[in-house]
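Following up on my earlier thread - several people asked me to post the actual chain instead of describing it. Fair enough. Here it is, all 157 residues.
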Amino acid sequence: MPIKKVAKHNYQITASLGFDPITGKHRRKRISNIRTKAEAEQIYTDLKNRYKNNDFPTSTNIAFSELSKMYFTDYTFNQKPTYVNTQEGYSKNHLVPFFKNTNITKISPTEVRAFQKDLIDKGTLSNNSINKHLILLKRYSMSQSKKYISLVTLALT
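Reply from S.P.:
Thanks for posting it. Predicted structure:
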């Protein structure tokens, strides 16, 4: 069953979204910590509609701006609004303008270093803020695929 009650006022959905045409891997989306059954049903319906409309890009042809949208749609669902607003600000003001429509498979540690250097050269952000931008970039890469995890990790070492 796609919607499962895991605790009082806590639901989890599991949506089967077919197979990725590039990798052949089964697409499955799990979302938990949903407060009401009606909300879980709505999320499940939205996921299935996105699948039917072929709104899930394959893992090799995603632009960075599209990855940003996917991240904020899927991975910040259970976060505090202030956290989401801060992260969206980082993305909108710094990450997306720098990487724009770059294909995520083309982003290497060299590009991440260039982004870091660009933030440092602007001189408007503290080192702590720059590191938070890089952490968000790493979360983007982890949200997409484990093979991109090394993208930021290599640049930070």
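Confidence is low (pLDDT under 50) at residues 146-157. That should answer part of your original question.
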